Fold each of these.
Amino acid sequence: MSTEVITSLEEVEEGSSLWTDALARLKKNKAALGGLGFVIFVAIIALITPWIAPFPYEVQNLDLGAVPPNASNWLGTDVFGRDLLTRIMWGGRVSLMVGVIATAVSLVIGVLWGSIAGYFGGRLDSIMMRIVDTLYPFPFMVLVILLSVIFGRHIYLMYLAIGAVEWLTMARVIRGQVLTVRKQEFIEACFSQGLSTWRIISRHVIPNVLGPVIVYTTLTIPSVMILEAFLSFLGLGVQPPMCSWGSLIGDGAKYMEEYSWLLIFPGIVFSSTLFSLNFLGDGLRDALDPKASKD
Amino acid sequence: MALISVKDLKTYFHTRNGVVRAVDGISFDVEAGKTLGIVGESGSGKSVSQYSLLGLIPMPPGKIESGTAMFDGQDLLKLSGEKLRKIRGKRISMIFQDPMTCLNPYMKIGDQLIEPLLTHFDISHEDAMKKAAQALKNVGIHETEKRLNSYPHQFSGGMRQRVMIAMALITEPELLIADEPTTALDVTVQAQVLDLIKKLQQEINTAVIFITHDLGVIAGVADEVAVMYGGKIVERGSTDDIFYNSQHPYTKALMASIPATHAHGERLYTIEGLPPNLTKAIPGCSFAPRCGECEDYCKTTKPELEVMESPSHESACLKYQKEHRA
Amino acid sequence: MLKFVLKRLLQAIPVLLILMTLTFVFMRAVPGGPFDSEKQAPEEVIAALNARYNFDKPMHVQYYFFMRDLVTGDFINWPSFKYSNQTVLSMIAPQLPRTVELAIYSMIYALLIGITAGVIAALKKNTYLDYGPMSLAMVGVCVPSVLMGPLLALVFGVWLEVLPVAGWDSWAHKILPTITLGSAIAAYVARLSRGGMLEVLNQDYIRTARAKGVPENKVILRHSLKGGLLPVVNYTAPAMAGLLGGSFVTETIFRVPGIGRFYVESVFNRDYTVIAGITVLFAFFYIGSNLIADVVTVLMNPRLKFGAKT
């Protein structure tokens, strides 16, 4: 009887896993794909900058001064005669590096903290999250400013300070996810089947937590880059002659009345990167959340 | 003269994955003061059919393709949004399955209760509150003063469903549509709620359309029963017709699936296979793949409802129709 | 309710203490002596300065004085490091109101624009009224105030010459700084409102309201807003943090004489007492606003207010 039933059904629906579904959804999202493409492009340029930059970034040419875009300086020069395109490329290296490293720091700390708290629950969870709650209202900018005064303005300090703040939110997000997953019935089913703790974690908990982590990470990088820009703008971040997109914008703002390209070009590059990362992050979020639908 | 008369209702959903024929041509009548029970599995179209009557289907992607629903001389399916809204909650009310999520958690119970009154009648806030208090008493909730000022989360599931019932009946509607009102409740509470509905129905002389997948519930409340499968009505008749003389294999299978009908230790019966994919046009009977009594012609000929032994009893099974004609 | 507030206050105390201690450490940790830049000054002057600031006393005594001043609020009377005839209070008193004003305007701007845009976008999902506001919101997120400020100043101040770009005197002066500071927050508020409203509109109880025949505008205003805007209320605490951090940059760009800009200047001036004083002030403000936001969240959610039983 049962074989009859199955063969007489017109077709069997192909089951699809969360990841293949997500990938399919992502491919349809043009904005996200565009964002991904741009980010990859920028990252590659940043990586090979030392080899392809047209000019050295720190050599000044005071006779030249600031000139608008022309054949030899495609994006013009700044008041010290330095090629803007080169400085934007080098600035990109710094900004992206801060973004990635600080996010990585916060990711590592946050994931560890959040998973332990979420998985073991109980008192440990309470204590760990209480610490997070206590640290949360810390005024971040104030902290970084203070630290920058004490330790001089080292860029590594920034990674630390930013990482030290962002991990809090990451920990909360992770813990929430781990808790939700852990409580779901299929985990109980795993327990009752006698799977070992490690197996449960690696095979079932992590894949389900990974989604939000990826999304959140992709969206943290632009926030971190904005924080770096704030600091460099104020003069507390990278120190001359090194530059970042934030410091370039700061310099551009100073001279924008006469030399507006000094503000506009770094601005375009910076916000394009931010747009791309945000589109990508949003796209990932829509793709990975099975409940989210645009219809 | 039927209170409400639905003919050939078709509601389709136009989705990315195809057109879902959720309700594929159903007709039914309900007399004033009587109860029609609609039985079927999830996905049979039972809820969608009733939501269509009240304009509660999201209109993309849903669309009422065809059909009429005559109520007091008006076709509900053709009424403008504003006209339909005036009937909704006043002359035709609805209660839903999950009382936990159906009440607004941010509003007091009293405010939610009086809302149908304030919306449809010219009545003062004070008078409405008095009626609300009375409505609560009618459903067996006392301490009305305190309750009216409480929030939904302070009530138990059974009490919330009573509040829903009170809210639906406060305007004394002519028709009440109850969409699986007891499914989410404990068995003991179920019985209470069913009795309550019955009692109130008699007091106000409301007609009831009772949707459920639970045959046991139907047996207790319905005068007439319609069995739905794959978006169509496959059998219809009085409660006696259906339970004692079923003329459709699906209905029979449903009854056989009730655990209580089996002796202790006997293997439980299940209907093999899966519900049909409603995006595919099915030649022949939609139940054929799972039917124990399927014949060859069942797979190719589309069945229609035909009257069986008693005039109130109709079945859409080709085989039983053949046997009846013989 | 009272218990809740007290509990939150208690939780806030460790944060304050940590921050205050950090500030103390910072003041002591500056390499070299604090008076390094005045090496030319004669010995007696340095000794007098040391005595005045208690630098000649042992560390734990200094710490005690420091904390005592902070806790009693006496820190506002600390003399400024750079301008010895001024105290912390006298320096920040004129500037604080300007920053508060900017913050209030920015918040109002952000909430008005953000909530309106978000709610409309949710109601008209997947139409131009959805894509439009949400794209603008994206701009608010991706063109941060460091960039938006100068660009606005360039366009409206330099090219079009319709708005002033420095100072805080007339109402016209206040426009660009408000937009600059508030836009990022408006963007988040818009997204949160849209998300919150969409989620609420999907809920069963909205269907119940419609089934009762409630007119659509009431369904939105009466039934959906409260729940839909809850995420926005949750966001106000981090939003105030954003305002605080953003004020440093916005005030610097538009030369607004507020304490944000002043704080940054003090950092460059190495005016330690002022830095310490303002830091603590910020800390109080921060904690306070978090507390208020928490209280409002609880008030808006009856489940939390009365304690869920089921």
Amino acid sequence: MNDENLPETTGGDRTPVGVDEPIANPGLEPHLWRPTDVDPKAEKRAERQVAGLFLLAILGAILFLVSYVVFQVGENPDTLGNLGASNVALGVCLAVTLLAMGTGIIQWARKLMGDHEIVEMRHSAASSQEDREATVGILKTGLEESGLGRRPLVRNTLLAAGGVLGILPIIMLRDLGPLPGDKLDHTIWDMNTWTPEEQAWWKTQHRTLQRVVRDVVGTPILASELEVGDLVNAEPEIVFATTPNGQPVVEGTDLLVAKSKAAVILSRMDPQDIVSEQTKNWSVDGIVCYSKICTHVGCPISLNERTTHHLLCPCHQSTFDLTDSGKVLFGPAARPLPQLDITVDDEGYLVARHDFDEPVGPSFWERG
Amino acid sequence: MLLGLLLTGGLYAAFSPAQAQSDNSAAQIKQGRELFLVGCAFCHGNNGQGVKTLDGKQLGPSLVGVGAAAVDFQVGTGRMPAVQPGAQIPQKEVVYTPEEIAALSAYVASLGPGPAIPNPEDYSLAGMSEEERQAAIARGGQIFLTNCTACHNFEGSGGAMPRGGYAPKIRGVHAKYIFEAMLTGPQAMDNFSNGNLSVEEKRDIIAYLQSIQDNPGYGGFGLGGIGPVSEGLFAWLVGIGSLVGVAIWIAAHTARTSKTKAEA
């Protein structure tokens, strides 16, 4: 860095000397006074205004107390357009008090408080040369006395200790895991992923395919009982299964995870409305079954219009066509809604033939 | 109030539609057909077969197989006869008398098999013990949150639907009409037929909706009851927005004068 082009400075304050300013310094604008500064009457008036506002604030506070006592605070108010006299009175009084105080303070500051214009000159932000030299000196002395340069053994072991300490949190990050593996790729509709307890329960059922059951109540659904236009929010039957002694087979966090991934909706439509071959093949008499989890960010979707068979996500308005393999018609979702391949069992109940053939819900890193 | 509702519902049902429906007399169907030809046939066709406009759009849908429940709902809540076709037929004042509605229902029911008007014991909570009622409310709440809130909001305040439609507010609606709406799926709404949600499950939903109505309100603006989003939007946009506006207004008004002090 070369200083020769910079203006000559005097010592530490770096104020240029002897340089003609290209534009004459206009100096400060003449000070304009406020009416309250030049007119004693205006000053008196402003004083009264401010005091008046503060008195209004006192009045508001007193009225607040009065209305607190007078009006009944109660359920289902029927006065003042169902807003409630108590609510309105308390609110208005408190608002008047706070507003009057605030206005009074601003009025006071703008009209009556001192009106000096203050100029604070800029100055160099750096410390003085002596201070800087002293600081460097202290650092150098410290370095010498600690012998950091002369004792490489101490220095290197200290660095090693710091490095090892840094590894600890990295090791502990492992506890955030285990890595999800292929868990995102399948849901509890896939019986191959069941735990031994779940499989033991399934052996007692003597059936081959898992039923689609109504959410909340867990009852199986007869295909013949659904009418055209019906919409059913459903789950796999395993999430409602109980052991002979009444214990749920899937419970706790596992249950919540299973339900949130496996939730489906069933919609019965006129079979002639179905457009795509896949939707037709995976349906039963016009009953189609789709994942209830939006492929955008995973909101549960069940805003269905029976007239158009469009399923709308309430979060970001992604719209899916239930007649055409869940194709995205509108909105930010990038993938069609996964369809579940369903059929009926011997007793006429709706069952899933297999798990979804693609991961449900939003896209994730490994999915590409 | 609940008792009053039930009593009115019970009396109403005992006297007119359900009873009339079971009579199903030829005279009633005849009266219904006469009313139909005057008030409904323009859009739904002389035989309720539906009418298509010249450009292929549906003016009024076919009423074959919609059942008496659909007529009782649509006409009983004033949605039909409609003023004009559109994105959504709004609720308005009821045009027909209960006898005329019963006759229209009987006529449309005679066009093809469809859901009948529900019996009061299907939707009425009368005769339930307090304990049973609480259990029904708890179950009904779960069923409601799973099946209904997506469109009708978690307190039944309704919400917007695509292309100008909306899911109406369903608080304060008579239990019979809520039951019929689930049974028949009016307009763009899905069906919740008895094979979808059982009669008891529908009654549980009604119990839940009535319990919402019994919740105390404390006044003030509800802002649609759609939760913290609308309230936060209001606070941020209207509340803080007006504060910013006032601050700008204060700063934009000078307190200066061109007069100078007498001694200056």
Amino acid sequence: MKNFSIATRQQNNVSILDISGELDAHTASHLENALKSLIDEESYAIIVNCSGLDYIASAGLGVFMAYIEDVRSLGGDIKLTNMNDRVYNVFDLLGFPTLYDILEDEREALQSFRN
Amino acid sequence: MAGTKHIQTLSVNASTKHLAQVRDFVAAHAESIGLSSKEISEIRLAVDEAYTNIIKHAYKNAPTEKVSIEIGSDSSKLWISLMDEGKSFDPSSYSNPDLKKRIKEKKRGGMGVYLIKKLMDQVQYNRKGETNEIRMVKNL
């Protein structure tokens, strides 16, 4: 999967996934595995930093759809940050901004987990 | 060059491995005729969604099956056709996705057709013999 990469870091008890490249039906399983691992480790405060994300298709959005309910019911959330306009537009076309916390910047997301 | 048609074709196996190649193929054509980066992004996504649906639904993830892709343009429009010989799609059975409900039910998918309709000006499904065609048109 040379056109997609993912890395995990921790800050203030929040898990941050840095995703970059192209997220499509081929690479979505990579994100899914990373989210599953966090949930298995009982890390439910999750930020997905999309600053390196160049492209997303609906298969990528489907991963967020599949896990948000579980994470929220366990007291956490998946917050999305640092999207470029093209990527945000896809989320927007499908109505995600009313149901997901999509923030300009990772710091805002960290702050909102503290509140 | 009014009236001149440019057509390119690509045949690929039905595998998500080839998604990036398929997107780059249509993007290169769109770029060569001078479309904006916004239009190129829309075309990349529309073809991705159509090809992914063929892989998953028409062929049910059988990677030896073939998909033919044609992209063409003239002075007034750009069109993309994807052809397969798998299970056909009935657009009348499709309803727009209710995101809130799908999240509650932990369902994913079912959004590709909706996106394609948003991104392109016309979408048609045709069946000729054993061949299914989705034809998507963007007015220029």
